[in-house]
Amino acid sequence: MPEQPETHWLTDREQRVWRTYLAATAGLQAHLDRRLRADAGIPVAYYEILVVLSESPGLTLRMGRLAELCRSSRSRLSHAVAMLESYGWVSRCATEDDGRGSLARLTDAGLAALREAAPGHVAEVRACLFDALSPQQLDALDGIVHTLRDAVAARSGGAVPGCQGAP
User: Fold this and answer.
1) What confidence tens digit (pLDDT) does each residue in 49-105 have?
2) In the list 20, 83, 142, 162, which could disulfide-bond 71, CB 3.0-4.6 Å?
3) pTM
4) Going edge to edge, which strands form the sheet with 60-62?
């Protein structure tokens, strides 16, 4: 049996920073999700799908690409898009070029729902993140998140899905 390399344990400081980072990011996501559900009746995951489609040429994307940009499994995305279809906010159709995939398209009703939900969501993002930071802290955070994204991309062999300007 091959010898296992020695574990390079986190220091007390690293452990504290790691746990605070996890609590902060999970807490922010949970808060934004609760607010969107209360204010617009949708979870953050559905909002993100609407945003990504709204930023896509022709308000349309292949389902596989949409899953990638939303950092979601295809099956989870398919379920979410089915719910958005039931609201009349998204429609699906087969691709014309190869017939194997399907396209998701943001409908006019979906765009209207996004426009209605966006101001409250943006206000919460601003209040919980940007208003809490000084300009210097924002600059530091910008550098930190880019460094982390690049480190993950290097370890996983490519770009980090969903980091192309998603909400």
Assistant:
1) 999 999 999 999 999 999 999 999 999 999 999 999 999 999 999 877 766 789 999
2) 162
3) 0.85
4) 60-62, 102-106, 90-94
Contact 64, 74 (CB under 8 A): yes
**Residue 132 Cα distances to 9, 25, 79, 89, angstroms:** 32, 14, 35, 33
Q: Is 49:70 a contact under the CB 8 Å cutoff? A: yes
Give the whole-angstrom CA distance, residue 132 versus residue 119.
18
- List, for residues 117-151, the tens digit of each pLDDT value: 999 999 999 999 999 999 999 999 999 999 999 99
Tokens 């209040």 identify what position? Answer: 127
Q: Which structure tokens are listed for 147?
A: 């460094």
For the chain, list the domains and their CATH numbers: 15-156 (1.10.10.10)
Residue 36 burial (CB < 10 Å; 0-12/13-18/19+)? buried
